[in-house]
C-alpha cells in the first residue's frame, strides 16, 4: 500500500447526489440543492474513518465526456488528468441516480472505456425503492465489472459500504500512477450503446409499476405557460410580503438593543473622541447593518425551500421560452437566479451555459438581479417613504414596492440581454435538463443552509462592514470643526468636503452631499450605504434614521436613490469576478461603464419624472 493519499473522484450526472456523498465522506459543507449545475468547480477534501489516507474530489455534474459547457470541461479534464501537474484520479466513484438509471449508465459505460478502476454508487436508493423499483445490484455489478454500492446520501445509508469498497481497492493498490489519459474515440455507435443499456436494465431492473401521478399533476399546473407564470409571480410576491411582515418585530428588538447599548456606553464614558468613536462609529455602524439580519434570513429561507423542493428546474423550463425571446435560454435561468443571493456565485454558475456568447451576456446582466446586499438599502428607504397600508385588501404596499424593485431589475436585465444579443447569431442549444423529483425540503438542509448564510452575513458585518464604518467615522470626524463653526461639524470634515465635491455630478438626480458620501463605502459593500447615512446624518438606529431621511429627502429623491441601487455595479467583488470569469479587460470595463451609465440615467429620469408628477 502506498503512503501517498489515494485520490478518488466523484463523477456523475448533474443532481445525482455527488456533493451530498462528498459532504458525508469528508465532513465538508459544500452546497447541495435539488437542481442540476450546483457544483461548477471541483472541490477536494480528505476522507475520514478510513485505514488509508485518501483524498476525494467532488466534480461538477456531466452527462458525457464529450462535453459542451465549461463546468463539464472541468470534470472531464480532471478525470483524464489533463490539468497541469495533476495525475488522473486513482479511482472513479461513479454516482448514479437510481431513479434515472439510463442516463446514469450511459456515463458509466463511457467512463468504463477509460479502463480505470471504478466503484459505482447507486444513490437515491430510497427514492428508487419508494417508486417500487428493484435492482439486482450483484448481477449488474458482475455484468459491468465493477463493485456497486447502494447509497442514500441524505441519510448515512451506504456510506460504510462505500468506505469498505474504498478499503478493498486500497489494499490492492500498487501505488503506480498513470500519466494523463487520452480521450477515447467512440468505439461504438450511440444506438448500440443504448441497446446495451436497455438490455442491462431488462435483465437486472424491475421497473416501477405505477408512475408518480401527483407529481405529474403538479407539473401540469406549475409548468403551464399561463397558470405556471401566475404561480411563480404569486410565490415571489408572497416572499416579499413575508420579508416585511415577519421581520419587523425582531428588527425592532435588535434596533432597540443597539440603541440601549449605545446609550449605556455614552453615559459610562466621558464625552470625547473615544465615546464618539464607540457610539457613533462602532455601535451605530455595525448595529445599523446587523438589524437587517432577520430580513436576510427570511429571504434565504424561501430561496432554500425553493431550491430543495425541485421547483426551480420547473421554473427554468417555464421561463425558457420568454428567455429565448431576449436571446438567453433556460440554461441561464439558474445562474441568474443564484444572483438574487449574490452576483458572485451567480456569475460563476454561468459556466453551465454552453454557448459562450450567451454566457457572456448572462454575466453582463447577472448583477441586475437584486442581490441580498441591496435588501437593507431598499427596505430602509421603503420603510421611511412608503406608507404601511394595504392595497387590494391584502397586499402590503411596502412589500409591493419591494416586488416592483425586483421586477425592475429583471425587466432591465431582459432588455439589456435583448440589446446585446440583437446582432449576434444565436445557436440553438436545446434545454436538456432532467426534472428532479419534488421533495419536501429537509429541515436539516434548511438549518445548515440558514446557518451558513447567517455566518456569511455576520462575517461581512464583522470584517468589511466594520472596517468601512470605522474609516467612514474617521473621515467624517476629522478634521474637527473650527471653534466658531456655524454649520454641523461633519461639513468641515474630509467626508463632508468629498461629498460637496461629488454633489454637482449628482445634482441632476437630486442627491445631496450626504447621499453622495454614502455611495463611496457602498462601492465595497452595498449595505454600508445604510450605516453611512446614519453616520452622516448623525443618528443611530434604524427607526431614527428612517425619520431623519423622511424629513430631509422628499419622495422623488428617495425613488431616485432606489433607482440608482437597482443598476449601479456597487460592488468590487462582482467586478473582480467578472474580470476572472471573462478573462477580458475590455469586457470588464464595458460591464462597469454600462451599469454605472444605466444607474445614472435611471436615477435622473426617476427624479425628474417624479418631481414633475408630484409637482
Ligand atoms: N432522496 C434522496 N435525495 C438525495 C440523495 N442524495 C442526494 N439527494 C438530493 O438530491 C439533490 C442533489 O444533490 P447534490 O448533492 O447537490 O447533487 P450533485 O450531484 O452534487 O449535483 P450537481 O452539483 O448539480 O451536479 C439534493 O436535493 C439532495 O438533497 C439520496 O440518496 N436520496
Ligand atoms: Mg454538486
UniProtKB/TrEMBL annotation:
InterPro entries: Fe2_transport_prot_B_C, FeoB_GTPase, G_FEOB_dom, Gate_dom, GTP-bd, P-loop_NTPase. This is Ferrous iron transport protein B. Residues 5-172 form the FeoB-type G domain. Keywords: Membrane, Transmembrane, Transmembrane helix. It comes from Gilvimarinus gilvus. CDD domains: FeoB. The chain crosses the membrane at residues 226-248, 277-306, 360-386, 398-419, 457-475, 559-578, 590-610. Pfam families: FeoB_C, FeoB_N, Gate.
Amino acid at each position: 500500500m502506498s503512503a501517498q493519499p489515494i485520490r478518488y473522484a466523484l463523477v456523475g450526472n448533474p443532481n445525482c447526489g455527488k456533493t451530498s456523498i462528498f459532504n458525508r465522506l469528508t465532513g465538508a459543507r459544500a452546497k447541495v440543492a435539488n437542481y442540476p449545475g450546483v457544483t461548477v468547480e471541483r472541490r477536494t477534501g480528505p476522507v475520514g474513518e478510513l485505514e488509508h489516507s485518501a483524498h476525494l474530489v467532488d466534480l461538477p455534474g456531466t452527462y458525457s465526456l464529450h462535453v459542451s459547457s465549461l463546468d463539464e470541461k472541468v470534470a472531464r479534464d480532471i478525470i483524464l488528468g489533463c490539468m497541469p501537474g495533476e495525475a488522473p484520479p486513482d479511482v472513479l466513484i461513479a454516482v448514479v441516480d437510481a431513479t434515472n438509471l439510463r442516463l446514469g449508465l450511459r456515463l458509466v459505460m463511457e467512463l468504463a472505456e477509460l479502463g480505470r478502476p471504478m466503484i459505482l454508487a447507486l444513490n437515491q436508493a430510497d427514492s428508487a425503492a419508494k417508486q417500487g423499483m428493484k435492482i439486482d445490484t450483484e448481477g449488474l455489478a458482475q455484468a459491468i465489472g465493477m463493485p456497486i454500492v447502494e447509497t442514500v446520501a441524505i441519510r448515512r445509508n451506504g456510506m460504510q459500504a462505500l468506505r469498505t469498497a474504498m478499503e478493498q481497492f486500497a489494499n490492492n493498490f500498487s501505488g503506480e500512477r498513470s500519466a494523463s489519459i487520452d480521450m477515447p474515440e467512440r468505439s461504438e455507435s450511440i444506438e448500440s450503446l443504448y441497446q446495451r443499456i436497455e438490455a442491462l436494465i431488462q435483465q437486472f431492473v424491475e421497473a416501477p409499476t405505477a408512475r408518480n401521478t401527483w407529481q405529474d399533476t403538479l407539473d401540469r399546473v406549475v409548468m403551464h405557460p399561463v397558470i405556471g407564470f401566475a404561480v411563480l409571480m404569486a410565490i415571489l410576491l408572497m416572499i416579499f410580503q413575508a420579508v416585511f411582515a415577519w421581520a419587523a418585530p425582531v428588527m425592532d428588538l435588535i434596533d432597540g438593543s443597539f440603541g440601549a447599548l449605545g446609550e449605556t456606553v455614552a453615559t459610562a464614558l466621558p464625552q470625547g473622541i473615544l465615546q464618539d468613536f464607540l457610539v457613533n462609529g462602532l455601535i451605530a455602524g455595525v448595529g445599523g447593518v446587523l438589524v437587517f439580519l432577520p430580513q436576510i434570513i427570511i429571504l434565504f429561507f424561501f430561496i432554500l425551500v425553493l431550491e430543495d423542493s425541485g421547483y426551480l428546474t420547473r421554473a427554468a423550463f417555464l421561463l425558457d421560452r420568454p428567455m429565448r425571446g431576449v436571446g438567453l435560454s433556460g440554461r441561464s435561468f439558474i445562474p441568474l437566479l443564484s444572483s438574487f443571493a449574490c452576483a458572485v456565485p451567480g456569475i460563476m454558475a454561468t459556466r453551465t451555459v454552453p454557448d459562450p456568447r450567451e454566457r457572456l451576456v448572462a454575466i453582463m446582466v447577472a448583477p441586475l438581479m437584486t442581490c441580498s446586499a441591496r435588501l437593507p438599502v431598499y427596505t430602509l428607504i421603503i420603510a421611511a417613504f412608503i406608507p404601511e397600508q394595504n392595497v387590494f385588501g391584502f397586499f402590503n404596499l411596502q412589500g409591493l414596492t419591494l416586488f416592483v424593485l425586483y421586477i425592475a431589475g429583471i425587466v432591465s436585465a431582459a432588455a439589456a440581454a435583448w440589446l446585446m444579443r440583437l446582432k449576434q447569431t444565436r445557436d440553438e442549444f436545446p434545454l436538456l435538463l432532467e426534472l428532479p423529483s419534488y421533495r419536501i425540503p429537509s429541515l436539516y438542509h434548511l438549518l445548515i443552509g440558514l446557518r451558513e448564510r447567517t455566518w456569511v452575513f455576520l462575517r461581512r458585518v464583522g470584517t468589511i462592514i466594520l472596517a468601512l464604518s470605522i474609516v467612514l467615522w474617521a473621515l467624517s470626524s476629522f478634521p474637527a470643526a473650527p471653534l466658531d463653526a456655524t454649520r454641523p461639524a461633519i461639513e468641515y470634515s474630509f467626508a463632508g468636503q468629498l461629498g460637496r465635491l461629488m454633489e454637482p455630478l449628482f445634482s441632476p438626480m437630486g442627491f445631496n452631499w450626504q447621499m453622495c458620501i454614502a455611495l463611496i463605502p457602498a462601492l465595497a459593500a452595498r449595505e454600508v450605504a445604510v450605516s453611512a447615512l446614519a453616520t452622516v446624518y448623525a443618528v443611530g438606529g434604524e427607526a431614527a434614521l428612517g425619520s431623519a431621511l423622511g424629513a430631509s429627502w422628499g419622495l422623488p429623491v428617495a425613488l431616485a436613490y432606489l433607482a440608482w441601487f437597482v443598476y449601479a455595479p456597487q460592488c468590487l467583488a462582482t467586478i473582480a469576478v467578472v474580470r476572472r470569469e471573462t478573462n477580458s479587460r475590455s469586457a470588464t470595463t464595458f460591464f462597469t461603464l454600462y451599469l454605472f451609465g444605466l444607474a445614472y440615467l435611471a436615477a435622473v429620469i426617476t427624479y425628474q419624472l417624479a418631481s414633475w408628477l408630484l409637482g
